[in-house]
Structure formats: structure tokens, C-alpha cells
Write a structure and sequence with these properties.
Helix content: 55-70%
Structural class: mainly alpha
Number of helices: 21
Shape: globular
Strand content: under 5%
Distance between the termini: 38 Å
Order of helices and strands: HHHHHHHEEHHHHHHHHHHHHHH
Strand order of the largest sheet: 1-2
């Protein structure tokens, strides 16, 4: 194990550091990390809205619409906040006005991803006449668009400022007023550019990736190990790029996942044994055997963080444990971060491929039954695994075994990352003392 850790430090860490210090990568990371308080707070409202205890769920049922509001204004529009953070961080690296850059980034993102809908007449008790935006377009599913628009808008602003294509105000004008006029030409160009791309050429960045993946649809939703592992790889791979993997894959696999679990349920009610149902790689298979703590099996990483020597990692682990227990892992993904972090990104992709393979062979050899019911995703994995496989205790054991596998795979990468974080903390303390 120590030799492997040394190998990671000698070979992987230098390349990771070089990548991590790149201006645009740093801006993306800083902008996404800035949304951490929102993801943590929003996660707790997700738990409240999806309580697995029937008595509590029934009690909260009349308040679902109210409980949904905090989630929608935090995680539900995460990309909007991330756009501002990324644009501001990149502008700071160029020593530009961060406030104007953040606002222009948000402008570019909204124009590129949202098309207001006009309602001409009132629908009594439902909606009033006016213009509306679908906030689903502002969620983590549009994070790729947020990254692209934030970086492009700042680069346009930086280019124009560098070429002095701006309005200069006389000396003595307050900086906030002067900066507003400096941003006037960039604002016009950014607005027109993204308006033309989205509304004239009808190009939607958020759906572009989904369209690229459409030819793979027939393969990804198959009931084969290769297809299942490819789905796992793509979902985790997108997450490491800061893109909501499940949201990107949903247009491709969601209809087939829904049909698969419905078919399994119908077959089971018709008397077919749970070990002989038609589909293995249902969404529930991934939820209870592979996504232990969320995509990437991050509950194991959360536990490792909780016992870290790094104060930041220890605090993050404690904050992320309860959401992670209920399979919500945005706090750890964006807080560590795992996004654009090769040290943690490698096991984030590798470990689910291993546990997915283990779970597949445990299923085809009938050690565990197939999934025959749909449950809320917030139920902890061992409990949900038992309930989803017709009360099979072997399923719970498999979840626990996979969790141990996650601990083993994450550990050496965690130690490298912990060492890196400790060095940063020592450096920051030294700067404070000086």
C-alpha cells in the first residue's frame, strides 16, 4: 500500500498539481466550491422531502410544496450560482473587476440556456399571464453550460479590455461607476453573441452533450456487464468534469430504466422469483449496490475524511456524513472537491466499476436477487437493498462488502490528497503568522 501511495505521489501528483494550477481549472474549482454552503443546506431539505419512514413522510406530505422551495433556490439553481463564482474567480486571476465579470457571466448563461415562455391569459388557480423561466434549466444539469459561458464571457471581456475597446471615464469618477462603463461594450457583445447562438442558430449547450451520446443508447441500456459498466463510467466521468452525470444520461437511459423496473415489478407480482427477473442493471441496482452514498460511492471517502489529520477534510467529512448516509453527495463532490481533481477523480471512477462488476456477478450467480421494487433514493443502501430484493439479507451483505471495497480503493488516493491538503494548511498558517 505504501509503495502505491509513493507511486501516486511521484507520478500522478506532479501532473495533477500542474493541471490544478491552470488558470481556467482553478477558476472552475473555486467557483464550484463557492456553492458548497448552498449544497449542504439544500441537501437537508432533500432528506426532509424524501423521508423513508412512512409515518414521518405522511406527516410531512401536506408540506411538500413548501419544503421543496429551499431546495429549488439552492441546489435547484446551482448552475446559476456557479456561473457567477467561476466568472468572478477567472476575472480575479486576470486582475479584472470581479463583480462586473460575474454579472456578465450570469447574463451569458441565462441567454444561452433559458428561453422565457410567454403566457397570454390567466389560468385560474394555476398561473397568471406573464413571462416565465423554467428553473430546471438552471440546475446542476446545466453545469457544463455554466462553465462554458462563464469562461467565454470573461475571456471576451478580458480581450476587449486588453485591446482598450472600452469606455474610459475621467479621473475622479468613482471606481464602481467607471467599472460599469468599462463593461458596457463587453456586455453588448456577450449578449448579442449568446443570443445569436441560442435563439438564431438554436444551439443549446446543455443538450449538446446528450445529443452526442444518443448513438450509444442501444448499448448503454443493455442488460450486459459491458453496457452497465459503460453507464457507470460515463456518469462518474461527467461528475469529475463538474457535470451532473445522472442528469446528462437521463435523456438516454431514464425511459429504459423506468420500463425495466416496471417490468421486473410486474414479473415478480406474476409469480416469477426475484432471482429470475428480466433486468439486472436497473437504476435501483446502481442505487443500492454501486452508488453507496451517491455517485462514486463517496460515503467511504466521507468516512475517511472524518478521521483525517487535515482539519478542513475532517470538518468537511463531518458536514457531509449525514447527507451522504442518505445518498446525497454534492457536498463532498464540490467541497473536496472531486470535480477536476485527478487525485480523487481516479478512484471516483474506478471504484464503482469494481463494485458494479462484483454486484453483477453476485446477481447472475443468484447470490442476490434482482431489484423488484422502487424505493426513495434517500434510504441508506443496506436497508434499501434488503427491501428492494424481496427482503434478501444477502443484498445487505453485498452492500456492506462493496462499502469495504470502496474504503480500500479510496484509501491510498485519500492519503495523497490528505498530504497535499496538510501542506496547504501549514503554508497558510505560516503566511498568517508572517
Amino acid at each position: 500500500m505504501n509503495n502505491f501511495v509513493n507511486f501516486l505521489e511521484a507520478k500522478i501528483l506532479p501532473a495533477a498539481n500542474k493541471l490544478g494550477q491552470q488558470r481556467h481549472m482553478t477558476a472552475i474549482r473555486k467557483g464550484i466550491i463557492a456553492t458548497l454552503p448552498l449544497t449542504i443546506v439544500g441537501s437537508f431539505f432533500t432528506i426532509l422531502s424524501n423521508m423513508p419512514i412512512p409515518a414521518v413522510a405522511n406527516f410531512l406530505a401536506p408540506y411538500q410544496a413548501i419544503l421543496d422551495i429551499p431546495f429549488r433556490f439552492t441546489v435547484g439553481i446551482l448552475s446559476l450560482y456557479a456561473t457567477f463564482g467561476i466568472a468572478s474567480a477567472l476575472a480575479a486571476s486576470y486582475k479584472m473587476d470581479t463583480l462586473s465579470s460575474g454579472i456578465l457571466g450570469v447574463l451569458a448563461f441565462l441567454v444561452a440556456t433559458v428561453q422565457p415562455v410567454k403566457v397570454n391569459t390567466d389560468v385560474k388557480g394555476v398561473i397568471t399571464a406573464g413571462r416565465y423561466m423554467n428553473i430546471a434549466n438552471l440546475s446542476a444539469s446545466s453545469l457544463f453550460a455554466a462553465i462554458a459561458t462563464a469562461l467565454i464571457s470573461v475571456e471576451i471581456y478580458h480581450f476587449l479590455e486588453k485591446k482598450n475597446i472600452t469606455i474610459k471615464m475621467p479621473d475622479g469618477v468613482p471606481p464602481e461607476v467607471s467599472n460599469s462603463f468599462v463593461a458596457l461594450f463587453p456586455a453588448a457583445i456577450i449578449l448579442i453573441l449568446f443570443w445569436v447562438v441560442r435563439d438564431i442558430f438554436n444551439f443549446n449547450i446543455a443538450t449538446f452533450i446528450s445529443n452526442l451520446l444518443m448513438p450509444l443508447k442501444g448499448f448503454l441500456v443493455g442488460n450486459s456487464l459491458a453496457g452497465g459498466l459503460t453507464t457507470i463510467f460515463l456518469i462518474c466521468g461527467f461528475w469529475t468534469l463538474g457535470i451532473h452525470g445522472a442528469a446528462i444520461m437521463d435523456p438516454i437511459v431514464r425511459p429504459f430504466w423506468e420500463m425495466s423496473i416496471a417490468n421486473n415489478m410486474n414479473q415478480f407480482h406474476a409469480g416469477v422469483a426475484a432471482t429470475k427477473l428480466p433486468t439486472i442493471f436497473t437504476e435501483q441496482f446502481l442505487q443500492w449496490f454501486v452508488w453507496i452514498g451517491g455517485a462514486g460511492g463517496t460515503l467511504a471517502l466521507v468516512v475517511l475524511f472524518m478521521f483525517s489529520k487535515s482539519q478542513y477534510l475532517k470538518d468537511l467529512g463531518k458536514l457531509s456524513f449525514l447527507p451522504g448516509l442518505f445518498n446525497i453527495n454534492e457536498p463532498i463532490i464540490f467541497g473536496a472537491p472531486i470535480v477536476l481533481n485527478p487525485i480523487l477523480g481516479i478512484p471516483f471512477i474506478l471504484a464503482p466499476l469494481v463494485t458494479g462488476t462484483i454486484s453483477y456477478f453476485a446477481t447472475v450467480t443468484h447470490l442476490v436477487p434482482m431489484m423488484m421494487v422502487r424505493l426513495p433514493f434517500t434510504i441508506p443502501a443496506p436497508i434499501a437493498a434488503i427491501m428492494s430484493t424481496n427482503w434478501s439479507w444477502n443484498a445487505a451483505i453485498l452492500s456492506i462488502v462493496n462499502f469495504v471495497v470502496y474504503l480500500i480503493i479510496y484509501y491510498p488516493f485519500f492519503k495523497v490528497f490528505e498530504k497535499q491538503q496538510l501542506e496547504k494548511e501549514v503554508s497558510e498558517k505560516a503566511k498568517e503568522q508572517n
